[in-house]
Automatic annotation (TrEMBL):
This is Nudix hydrolase domain-containing protein. Its cofactor is Mg(2+); Mn(2+). Gene3D superfamilies: Nucleoside Triphosphate Pyrophosphohydrolase (3.90.79.10). Keywords: Hydrolase, Magnesium, Manganese, Metal-binding. GO terms for molecular function: hydrolase activity, acting on acid anhydrides, in phosphorus-containing anhydrides; metal ion binding. Transmembrane segments: none annotated.
Length: 288
């Protein structure tokens, strides 16, 4: 049955209600780091060819939630979001704050950049990745400032693969002067790219991407600066979730409500919802 083009955050599927093929759906988080160089760039990484999921793909820092991401101490350690405001923003039930924590932690581990924390935490990135250290133990007296980290999308891996993830995408400004360093394990290369440049390189066959990554680049390319993108993300937290449609998982632009061909023959509903509009107010880059 065709689903509505957009729904409020408390009406889209819970993880337990998603289409199932017997493969467990793990909760995950991804962080889009933005920086003006001098115009808006987004940090991308290339996944190792040895990865069992999206090997050799270009994407953004992120990964599955760890037990420590949901530690009971976090509500007292963070600023900017509360458990209640996080639950309301994501609409998936209690415990949503863990997605913010995971997005920050994975970015530290994979590219060596700490958002909302002192840079000294980066020295522990490999211990965090291996489980020898927990981010909740490293936060310090200043806590973790999540006020600049905003959710903008949710994508769920379709059925039929070896691994499935229910992933929330966040945007944040890169700390001043921060430079990424790939961990060499999961991420083998990092690059700051203009969203339009990344899409052009993907369309030229230089980069391999999947629909969630493509959709985020489509939304970001309408912004000229980090401030513009973050302002749009901040006011979109309670906005309706726009259901994406796709024609092909990795070789076609994502279609959003209002785009030409949104319901064209051959397109199908994706398990993807996006709520950050572009600078012009639309949701994609497709032209009539």
């Amino acid at each position: 049955m065709t689903q509505p083009e957009s729904v409020p955050p408390d009406e889209y599927p819970r993880t337990d209600d998603l289409p199932s093929d017997g493969v467990p759906v793990r909760s995950a988080a991804t962080l889009l780091l933005l920086d003006d160089r001098p115009d808006l760039h987004v940090l991308t990484l290339r996944r190792t060819t040895r990865s069992t999921f999206v090997a050799d793909h270009t994407l953004f820092p992120g990964g599955a939630l760890d037990p420590d991401d949901g530690d009971a101490r976090w509500p007292d350690l963070v600023r900017g979001w509360t458990p209640a405001s996080a639950d309301d923003a994501l609409g998936t039930g209690p415990g949503a704050l863990a997605f913010w924590i995971a997005a920050v932690r994975e970015t530290i581990e994979e590219v060596g950049i700490a958002v909302g924390l002192g840079g000294e935490v980066v020295a522990h990135r490999h211990d965090l990745d291996s489980g020898r250290s927990r981010l909740s133990d490293l936060v310090g007296n200043d806590g973790l400032d999540l006020s600049g980290v905003h959710p903008v999308a949710r994508w769920v891996t379709p059925t039929g693969g070896l691994k499935r993830y229910d992933t929330f995408f966040f945007v944040a400004a890169a700390p001043l002067g921060a430079e990424p360093v790939a961990d060499g394990t999961e991420a083998v290369a990092v690059d700051w790219m203009r969203p339009t440049e990344a899409l052009e390189r993907w369309q030229a066959g230089e980069l391999t991407m999947i629909s969630p990554t493509i959709s985020m680049l489509q939304c970001l390319e309408g912004f000229g600066t980090t401030a513009e993108a973050l302002a749009a993300a901040a006011v979109a937290n309670g906005a309706p979730r726009r259901r994406a449609r796709i024609l092909d998982e990795s070789s076609d632009l994502v279609r959003f409500p209002g785009d030409p061909g949104y319901e064209a023959v051959g397109t199908r509903e994706a398990l993807g919802w996006v709520w950050i509009p572009s600078h012009e107010g639309g949701f994609g880059t497709l032209e009539p």
